[in-house]
Write a structure and sequence with these properties.
By secondary structure, the protein is of the alpha/beta class. It contains eleven helices and ten strands. It folds into two domains: 210 residues, 2-enoyl-CoA Hydratase, Chain A, domain 1, CATH 3.90.226.10; 49 residues. The mean pLDDT is 92.
């Protein structure tokens, strides 16, 4: 697929997906939706990629849904049948993927590589939805956030009511969604929405440094299995989660990355993980 509204780059085992409508603060469109989905699956399938970064071009991460599409929806809302047709494209790609992680926007957890949300600027509405589906979020110290929906006469959509409370807690999720107020990077860090805040003038360098550490120092296989464990554990009892972990550990003992993990530690050298 040729991309028109995103940029896709792979360098040093890191795939960077950049929303590329800087004049619109990367407001979300159907084209972005299709292209980003394609790029994420491309990165997952590429053995040369170990980490994925999602960011925005220019001053914004994603300012939410494009107002033109919102106006069209207000003039002619889609029917339930039309929404169901649009969802068919999000059918599970593998039998081991939960239906929960196969919806229109909820597929990030199904991708077996870590996804870092690099929030370089405005992050609102659907932009915040996508940021919450990332595995971790880093923000520029100039970033601004808002759920936005309640101030547009809308509701918490596309699973945000599920993801946000698991990230920031119930009370904070209610505050941020009901008020739809604007809040800044320091508060986002305080409530746990973002993992770290970096200075704007060196933001992407700081994000890339973290991504490079994952790409070079951590087993790709381990990252993929651990990611699946963490997301699936939200639906499991402690007993079930422990049984899954025990089985996964037996599999790890048979893998070359386990042997390399021990060898590079004993030999005091950088690891050469293969993901196998």
């Amino acid at each position: 697929m040729a991309y028109k509204e995103i940029l896709y780059d792979v360098s040093d085992a890191i795939a960077t997906c950049t929303l590329n409508r800087p004049d619109k603060l990367n407001a979300w469109t159907g084209t972005i939706e299709e292209e980003l989905r394609d790029a994420m699956f491309k990165a997952e399938a590429d053995d040369a990629v170990r980490v994925i970064i999602l960011t925005g071009a220019g001053r914004g991460f994603c300012a939410g849904a494009d107002m033109g599409s919102l106006s069209a929806t207000a003039d002619k809302p889609r029917t339930l049948e039309e929404d169901q047709e649009r969802m068919k494209a999000a059918a599970p790609r593998r039998e081991d993927i939960r239906a929960d992680f196969s919806q229109k926007y909820s597929y990030f957890p199904s991708i077996n590589k870590p996804i870092i949300g690099a929030i370089n600027g405005a992050c609102a509405g659907l932009g915040l939805v996508m940021a919450c589906y990332c595995d971790m979020r880093f923000a520029s110290d100039t970033a601004k956030f808002t759920t936005a929906f309640a101030r547009r006469g809308l509701i918490s959509e596309h699973g945000l009511s599920w993801t946000l409370q698991r990230i920031v807690g119930l009370a904070n999720a209610l505050d941020l969604t009901i008020s739809a107020r604007v809040f800044l990077a320091d508060e986002a860090l305080q409530v746990g929405l973002v993992n770290r805040v970096f200075a704007a003038d060196s933001f992407m360098e700081s994000v890339m440094a973290y991504a490079t550490e994952l790409a070079t120092m951590v087993s790709p296989r381990s990252m993929g299995v651990i990611k699946q464990q963490i997301y699936n554990a939200q639906f499991e009892t402690l007993e079930e989660s422990t049984q899954v972990a025990n089985e996964a550990m037996r599999g790890s003992f048979m893998c070359s990355d386990f042997k390399e993990g021990v060898a590079h530690f004993v030999e005091k050298r950088p690891p050469a993980f293969t993901g196998r």
